Amino acid sequence: MPEFDHEYTYVEGDRAKLRRVAWILWLSHNRGLWIMIAVQTVAFGLCAIQFDELLYLLGIPAMALFFFLVTAFRMRKAFWWAEPGREAAVGLDAGVLRIMDASGQLILRASTVRTVFWINEVMLVELKSKRRLMLLKPLMGPGFEAKLVAATSVAK
Prior knowledge:
The protein has 5 helices and 7 strands, in the order βαααββββββαα. It is of the alpha+beta class. Helix 2 runs antiparallel to helix 3. The model has no long low-confidence stretch (mean pLDDT 89).
């Protein structure tokens, strides 16, 4: 099991950064959302044509607003572990990634990593299971990304 290479204490604004990236991911990588919006647009459009009433078209933005409000409500308490004062640590050694924060500890092999990419100041580690880890830039410390990419390429 790898030792922790770098430790970090979350500060004010970290939770907002993670939420912002979560919104970007939700909007850009959520095919189901866009399919649902397309289906409801067709359905409300057909209702407007069938019943010759343009008020049915108001259902399109109403349903889209509903989806966004439900998501915003659910995301209200997201990333509770990134509140100011809470600590996190990251370690990488021999192809094993170890992350520990207030929510618990995660240990996984580098071979489970599919891709690594950045959105703003957050590094996203996409796993082969299509799940994503979001790591803030200050949490990783210097050289962590290069070590992770090297461990991933060796593991493949």
